[in-house]
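Exercise 7b. Backbone tokens:
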């Protein structure tokens, strides 16, 4: 029967090429990874999401009511920001697009920059 001879030939090749050592190393690393993963499965604090409507995008199915609420909230927020930007630009002039008054001190300019 040639099967034992073939097995012995394969085993000797594995030993010669160092593949058996590599396979053992890979198996040990997989075991280590599984141990680390099982240790971190119970750690809920590590993956806690903030309490906001944006978390609903991640935690709920797209066809659910909470997901639709998150979409509505995000759309409303974006619309409000867009309206605010449009109002800021419309009050300006050609040389001063945002309508920031000129001839003020550097402290006022800095405050306007950070407040805008």
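Sequence design result:
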């Amino acid at each position: 029967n040639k099967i034992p001879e073939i097995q012995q030939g394969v085993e000797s090749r594995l030993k010669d090429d160092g593949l058996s050592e590599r396979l053992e190393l890979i198996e040990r690393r997989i075991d280590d990874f599984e141990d680390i993963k099982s240790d971190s499965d119970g750690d809920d604090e590590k993956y806690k999401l903030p309490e906001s409507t944006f978390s609903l995008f991640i935690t709920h199915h797209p066809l659910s009511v909470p997901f639709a609420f998150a979409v509505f909230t995000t759309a409303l927020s974006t619309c409000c920001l867009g309206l605010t930007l449009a109002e800021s630009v419309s009050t300006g002039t050609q040389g001063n697009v945002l309508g920031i008054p000129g001839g003020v001190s550097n402290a006022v300019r800095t405050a306007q920059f950070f407040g805008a």
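Instructor comment: The radius of gyration is 32 Å. The CA atoms of residues 54 and 104 lie 40 Å apart.
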